[in-house]
Amino acid sequence: MILIFSEDNEIAFEILSKARELAESSGSELASISFGGGENAHVAFGASRVFSIQPRDSSIMPSLQADTAVEVISGLIDQYRPETLLIGSTKLGREVAPRIAQQLGVGCATDCIDFSLDREQLIVKRFVLGGRFISTQKFLRKPQIATVPPKKFEKKINGSRKGEIIIIKTSLKPSGTGVQVVETKKKAAQELKIEDANIIVSAGRGIKKKEDLRLIEELAQVTGSAVGCSRSIAADLKWLSEEHWIGLSGHKVKPKLYIAIGISGQVQHIAGIRDSRTIVAINNDPNAPIFKACDYGMVGDLYDIVPKLVAILKKS
């Protein structure tokens, strides 16, 4: 059995679509885990069996915590013995996957960009050394556990596909946890998730002060873009929230157009934008690494170029 889990349904559908190909080629059963609904969609995207995790008290649907996910998934592994477990590489998934692997004493490959099966042996490909190289790896023990980032596989729906939905009632409160949730605060929702944007205008350390981000925001408004940034803007200076952070440790994006403004182009940032269809860079350093990764580059002061670019776009 190949078992899929992600609390983000869009990522789950992407993984299911790819895993369906593997299941059909190897004759394996493809199953998924659903917390809080969407079971029929899981079937349409490839699952032949869906484990629907529901609270015993239907009036209460607590937010999913890592302890709960680990306990539920570990229970399903004990019962159904899947050979492969693929987990969406979200903040939750990146915590859940290694914890399950540690419990079982097996390996865990993170942020896999491709995978295949060879005689039930999972072969994965993933970036290593800051995204400079692609490593091909295989597992020594089962279950084989891997996390998969978003936007790596195309969703393929089949509305006529049939599947079994197994309802599992649970308290959704982990036993023996050492974690106590004191308070939960929702983050302010962005108008557009950075991963879903077709155009991204991104700011780097070339921006001299926080107030100057208005230049980036104005260009984003004119082009209908989402605003992104490098690590220094989000993690070091905290001028923008982590929702805007693009790179190896931030969000990995795949827009049609990526405009990097004042970004030097270190390998950690390039790892987050390498799947962009077209990359445009603006930097005053002609030797900046970003110029080796971009399709079009402009050498010059962003404080001169960006306002002129905005003016031209407004006219056109």
Describe the protein's architecture and organization.
Helices cover 30% and strands 26% of the residues. With 316 residues, it is of the alpha/beta class. The strands form 3 sheets. The chain has a 7-stranded parallel β-sheet, with helices on both faces. The protein has a 5-stranded parallel β-sheet with strand order 12-11-13-14-15. It is elongated. The termini are far apart.
Quick overview of this protein structure:
The chain is of the alpha/beta class. The protein is built from nine helices and 15 strands. The mean pLDDT is 90.
Strands, helices and their partners?
Blueprint: E1 2-5, H1 9-26, E2 30-35, H2 39-44, E3 49-55, H3 66-80, E4 84-88, H4 91-104, E5 108-109, E6 112-118, E7 121-128, E8 133-138, E9 144-148, E10 164-170, E11 199-203, H5 213-223, E12 226-229, H6 231-236, E13 257-261, H7 267-273, E14 278-283, H8 290-293, E15 296-299, H9 302-315
Parallel strand pairs: 1-2, 1-4, 2-3, 3-10, 4-9, 5-9, 11-12, 11-13, 13-14, 14-15
Antiparallel strand pairs: 6-7, 7-8
